[in-house]
Amino acid sequence: MELHFTKMEGIGNDYIYVDGINQDVNMTPEFISRISDRHFGIGGDGMIVILKSDIYDFKMRMFNLDGSEGMMCGNGIRCFAKFCYDHHLTDKKVLNIETKAGLRIVELVFEGDEVVGAKVDMQEPILDCKEIPVIFNQEKMINEKVKVGDKEYSLTAVSMGNPHVVTYVDSLDFDIETIGKQFEHHEMFPKSVNTEFVEVINDHYLKMRVWERGSGETMACGTGACAVMYASYINGYCKEKATVELLGGKLEIELKEGHIFMTGPATTVFEGKIKV
Ligand SMILES: N[C@@H](CCC[C@H](N)C(=O)O)C(=O)O
Asked: What is the distance between the alpha carbons of residues 264 and 165, in angstroms, rounded to a whole number?
């Protein structure tokens, strides 16, 4: 049997996109980590499957490099919407997409006839520790000093449908592999966590690196950039609109009427088929 796929990336956060409406897709962790492997597979930060939804236009399921399933993917959902439009699964330019974290509304961005990106209503950020989830002795974790490994960090925990913890650093040049794993496996995060390390450049420009649960360091994380903007806003480091620069590029993030909006590119790298 063959599996048709499209490799796509949103500022370097790359996934293998597969149409699960017109073909059967193996969604076991073993298969996902095998095809995502950069030496023995197609290569990517994981796999994203396009499915029919009973309530909205489409349903997105996303899987990390280790095969674990994520609730939401910010860079992924922009590419997901482009995939649906480019593959003629829809001619809508605004798509309602069902994710494990609920509805996300994606407005495609065009250059001429070509879809080059999207603006996404990422819904309301969540600070409630129980919902994120974070085991902590207060309702919210905002700029709280917590020891991770042998160092104390000031942490702000935010859910964008998936769990994030944001911390501020003087320099982005550090051993993310060691520190990222300490956060990812810390007992205060019962469902693990995505960790964002942020350098504040000014009140409308933030730079970050991310360590994603299930995938390790990636070039970018869309939900992470939203969590960073919101954490920085409530900590008084930025205004309602900010550019967030990640290793793979920039996203524009805006807080409007309690919702976070993310705008960024979506790019097709190549298409193919593999024997499964
Ligand atoms: N890269 C993504 C987030 C992917 C999911 C995450 N690793 C999780 O398991 O929560 C993004 O762009 O948001």
From this structure: 22
- Rounded to 5 degrees, what are φ and ψ at 269? -95, -55
Instruction: Using most ligand atoms within 8 A of CB, pick from 194, 217, 251 the residue to mutate for ligand 1.
Output: 194
Q: Domain tally for the chain?
A: 2
Global ipTM: 0.99
Decide if 158 contacts 231 (C-beta within 8 A): yes
List residues bridging with 195 in a β-sheet.
165, 211
- Identify the domain containing residue 161 by its residue range: 144-253
Provide the whole-model pTM. 0.98
The verdict on 76 and 9 lying in the same domain is yes
Q: Is there an atom of ligand 1 within 6 Å of 212 CB? A: yes
State in Å: Cα 217 to ligand 1 middle: 11
Whether residues 245 and 271 fall in one domain: no
Quote the ligand 1 centre to 88 CA distance (angstroms).
26
CA of 73 relative to ligand 1 center, distance in Å: 5
What are the average pLDDT values for consecutive 10-residue runs of the chain, which has 276 residues? 97 98 98 98 98 98 98 98 98 98 98 98 98 98 98 98 98 98 98 98 98 98 99 98 98 98 98 96
